[in-house]
Each structure stands twice: as structure tokens, then as C-alpha cells.
Amino acid sequence: MGASVPLDPLHNAVRPDLADVRLADRVFAPHYAASVPRIVVAATPLRQGSDMASNALAELVVGDVFEVLEFAKGRAWGRAPGHDLVGYVDADALSWPGK
Q1: How many structural domains is the chain composed of?
Q2: CATH value at residue 41
Q3: Per residue in 50-92, pLDDT tens?
Q4: Residue 18 and which of 7, 68, 87, 95 are 20 to 30 A apart at CA?
């Protein structure tokens, strides 16, 4: 594989430590993850950073799909394909299998 191609992290699920496996042919990352689709069950902002004071990029509404790549500290990081944006949401706002 050649050198990584710079990708906009606002629209591509790539961070210095983790990237969407679908981007493996374009970017090097220490770890890759396959997204797990979840349904938004409570309206929630999609934030640029993991903290609650971080800039809101969009509002996800009930029924939206969110492709989760990582759960940590009550937040989920991933991609909102309906908005073509990557960010963090409250993990409690997402569906869980069997619920």
C-alpha cells in the first residue's frame, strides 16, 4: 500500500488512531473498525468532539441511521450517512439489539 491520501475527517470516519475499514485502501491508521448501524431512538446532536460543549454539526432525529465505529465514555463515534457527517452522539440515543 502506498502513502495515505488526506481525507476530510468531517466527512470521512478517520482519526489518527482509528479509521473506518471502508477507507483502508486510501488511508493508513493503526486500527480499523467495521461500522455497526444503529437507529436513533431519541433526538440528539451530532457533535464534532466527544464533549458536550463541542460544536453541534447536525441534529439527528428519531429514525436516522448512525454507523457506529467506537463506543467510549457514553458516547458513540461514527458516521451519519443521511447528513454525510462524522462525529459523536450520546450512546443512549441509539438503538441496541434486543431492545
Answers
A1: 1
A2: 2.30.30.40
A3: 998 999 999 999 999 999 999 999 999 999 999 999 999 999 9
A4: 95
